[in-house]
Amino acid sequence: MYEGIVEERKKRELLEERKRRDNLELEKLSIEVQIELNQEIFSRNNRTPSNELNKLLPKFDMKEDISLYLILFECQSCMRNVPKEFWFSHLLGLLPQEITQLIARESEQEARDYDHLRSLLLKSFKLSPEKFSQLFVTHQKSSDKTWRDFYQEVQTFFNGWIEGLDVKYLTNYRI
């Protein structure tokens, strides 16, 4: 009887050991699958090289409105599924040398932060809430542009004005 109990315990211990190994193997496979999935997602997100955005957007011209250009850049980056942490590198390739020198003076951490770069560019072009307000009030439709273009421009000026004032309850309203 004693030998039967010992044998039964050994069988139970072997089964438990086999279950532990199987569970470890299953967990290992699950981790490997998750790693492969993350690598696939990462490679898919990084498939958009900066030269593809260079083909979609022309280099920024200093005579243009930087706020409209940044909005176009943000839209194209979102449509191309470029992760926001890589926007700064794509944007640098589209800016003229005068502006990149301004950015080069920033710390590396600030230069990699797209939101910081955006506010720096708007400040350097002196697009304060007051300037957006003036642009919104005085903007007129030019004959070579469509009414839709005019609408987009006025909407950009209005949103820049409101966002610059940090009016939170109006930011959901778009004209």
UniProtKB/TrEMBL annotation:
Entry coiled-coil feature ranges: 5-32
Keywords from the UniProt entry: Coiled coil
Gene name linked to the record: fs(1)h_5
Protein name: Homeotic protein female sterile
PANTHER family on file: RIBONUCLEASE H, ZINC KNUCKLE DOMAINCONTAINING PROTEIN-RELATED
Entry keyword Coiled coil: yes
